[in-house]
Design goal:
single chain; alpha/beta; UDP N-Acetylglucosamine Acyltransferase, domain 1; 11-stranded mixed β-sheet; 11 helices; globular
Length: 430
């Protein structure tokens, strides 16, 4: 029987580090780069790697994710491909939600229907990267591994946020420590020049450690056996418990990879896309990033001044000045407004002329950015209404400030989805 590859994408928990972007949606459904969602990245990596049996495990605010998946990923009837969301559910003898990554997989083993000779590829739903997963599978087969962990050299200052790996010359894993706090432990796991170069590090003068990317390949039988207990997390419990009992190897990844689980990393990853040579390439025709086809009209732009800005489909932008920004679908920006380093997610729908007239009579801002408004270092979530003569910037505001649907998180100003910022509001210094 031909071996099957089962891809399992972890949708994450409540997404507290990405709040308030996850206030009304789960992490994989957060919009990215104007027209995509975070979930499109791992799904596209699978499709580009000829893996088409894909499960997404999630449990919080899944409605928008369900709609996106249903609209975006439709396979033909003959290839056996699918993208299926498996939300936490009550089962016989248990009412527990997913307690961690390993527990989520354990609770769904029945749905996967895997044979012992199959492979499981386990991916994260909140990372930005482009990977040929088949190369990792080839590594897994070549080394005779039971489990392969994707790993990348990361700077010493960041290592306490990752699982750290020490490898032997044959790529087998000799030591694995999940998110070490002890500086002595981190120091003992720093890598040499050869591994730095293998991981694509050009500046080899800095100190690096080999970090787990949270991407795993398991032989199906090994995974099933490893989950015959109460362990809840792969990095904290399952992987360390298997070290020395099973053959664990590392797949050294040399491309761009960013864990965008925080508001700051999400903002910086988006803004980086507007640069001359962004580290992640959405324009690579050989590694297409797929998403929902919306059939939007082209954007209308009147007398604007753009610099290093990405504009998505269906936008109306009039006499505005925009620098280093992402403009999402159906976005509306009125005349005289200035945006600098802004992720404007746009809108889920167009307003009718009747609604606009009613808004004018009630002095309610329309969806989008009004006239003579200035915004800097901010994320404007979907369907937000920013009035005229508004100033929004995190400068001068304390972390955690929350006023009128606006939150300061990780030094970034975030306007919450569906919020209204009235005319004349001033928050921060532009």
């Amino acid at each position: 029987m031909k071996r099957k590859i089962h891809s399992v994408i972890m949708g994450g928990g409540r997404g507290t580090r990405l709040h308030p972007l996850t206030k009304l949606r789960c992490k994989p459904a957060v919009p990215l780069a104007g027209k995509f969602r975070l979930i499109d990245i791992p799904i596209s990596n699978c499709i580009n790697s000829n893996i088409n049996q894909i499960y997404i495990l999630t449990q919080f605010h899944t409605a928008s994710l369900h709609k996106h998946i249903q609209d975006a990923y439709k396979f033909d009837n003959f290839g056996g491909g699918f993208v299926e969301i498996l939300s936490a559910e009550q089962k016989e003898g248990s009412e527990a939600w997913y307690q961690g990554t390993a527990d989520a997989v354990r609770q769904n083993l029945l749905h996967f229907g895997a044979n012992d000779d199959d492979l499981f590829v386990i991916l994260s739903g909140d990372q930005l990267y482009s990977m040929d997963i088949q190369k990792m599978i080839d590594d897994h087969d070549r080394t005779g591994a039971d489990i392969t962990i994707a790993a990348k050299p990361m700077e010493k200052s960041t290592l306490n946020a990752f699982g750290l790996i020490r490898v032997n010359e044959d790529q087998s894993i000799a030591e694995f420590v999940e998110k070490p706090e002890d500086p002595a432990v981190i120091e003992s796991l720093l890598i040499g020049e050869e591994l730095k170069k293998a991981g694509g590090i050009k500046d080899t003068t800095q100190e690096y450690g080999l970090a787990s990317m949270g991407i795993y390949i398991f032989n199906a039988k090994v995974l099933k056996d490893a989950l015959q207990n109460d362990d809840t997390d792969f990095g904290k419990e399952v992987i360390p418990a298997l070290l020395g009992k099973k053959r664990l190897t590392a797949h050294i990844f040399e491309g761009y990879w960013e864990d965008i689980g925080t508001v700051k990393s999400f903002f910086e990853a988006n803004i980086d896309l507007t640069g001359d040579n962004p580290e992640f390439d959405f324009y690579d025709s050989k590694r297409v990033i797929y998403t929902r086809a919306r059939n939007l009209p082209a954007s209308k732009i009147y007398k604007c001044d753009f610099d290093h800005t990405i504009v998505s489909g269906g936008c109306f932008i009039k006499n505005a000045k925009i620098n280093r920004s992402i403009i999402g679908i159906r976005a509306s920006i009125d005349e005289g407004s200035i945006l600098e380093k802004v992720v404007l997610m746009g809108s889920d729908f167009y307003q009718s002329n009747e609604e606009k007239d009613n808004n004018a009579n009630s002095k309610t801002p329309n969806i989008g950015v009004g006239k003579n408004t200035r915004i800097k270092n901010a994320i404007i979530d979907k369907n937000a209404r920013i009035g005229n003569n508004v100033t929004l910037s995190p400068e001068g505001l304390e972390e955690g400030t929350a006023i009128e649907g606006v939150v300061i998180r990780d030094g970034i100003l975030v306007v919450v989805k569906d919020s209204v910022v009235p005319d004349g509001t001033t928050l921060g210094k532009f």
